[in-house]
Amino acid sequence: GEDVEQSLFLSVREGDSSVINCTYTDSSSTYLYWYKQEPGAGLQLLTYIFSNMDMKQDQRLTVLLNKKDKHLSLRIADTQTGDSAIYFCALRGSNSGYALNFGKGTSLLVTP
Amino acid sequence: DTAVSQTPKYLVTQMGNDKSIKCEQNLGHDTMYWYKQDSKKFLKIMFSYNNKELIINETVPNRFSPKSPDKAHLNLHINSLELGDSAVYFCASRPHEGSTDTQYFGPGTRLTVL
Question: Tens digits of per-residue pLDDT, A41-52?
Answer without folding.
Answer: 889 999 999 888
